Amino acid sequence: MNMLFILLQEAPAPQGGGASMWIMILLIFAVMYFFMIRPQNKQRKELQKFLDALKKGDKVVTIGGMHGVVKEVKEDKVILEVDKDVCLTFNKGAVQGPAVPPAAPKKESKKEEMKEEEKK
After folding, report:
1. Distance, CA of 10 to CA of 73 (rounded, Å)
2. CB contact burial 85-113 (16+ within 10 A = b; e otherwise)
């Protein structure tokens, strides 16, 4: 019976844990800000700067993956030439960024080059 009485008693409340809890919460918010919010804001500003500087002849990619050359820029619209004599109108917000040129083909490794030389 004494054992049951001991188990049913309330545990004493921990002392002095409030400050460390607030420090941890602030630390979590700081990490979220520096790793998530700040880079996203920076990227958004760079995209807005790119859209404001958009001019005729720029190669761009839309959010749908359409590659084209800017034919005309209006206040909130962009006309892209996607093929010879094929022009499409997009909202400026649909432009994702500049078109990235295709990557150069990778050079073969030295081992593969040596094997080819041995075959010759």
Report:
1. 72
2. eeeeebeeeebeeeeeeeeeeeeeeeeee
Number of Cα atoms under 13 Å in the Cβ half of residue 105: 3
Task: Quote the CA–CA distance of 88 and 70 in Å, as a whole number.
Answer: 10
Exposed/middle/buried for 16, CB within 10 Å: 0-12, 13-18, 19+?
A: exposed
Residue labelled with tokens 């996607």: 82
Structure tokens at 97: 């960024």
The pTM of the full predicted model, rounded to 2 decimals, is 0.60
pLDDT at 89: 95
pLDDT band at 19; cut points 50, 70, 90: confident
pLDDT over threshold 90, residue 99: no
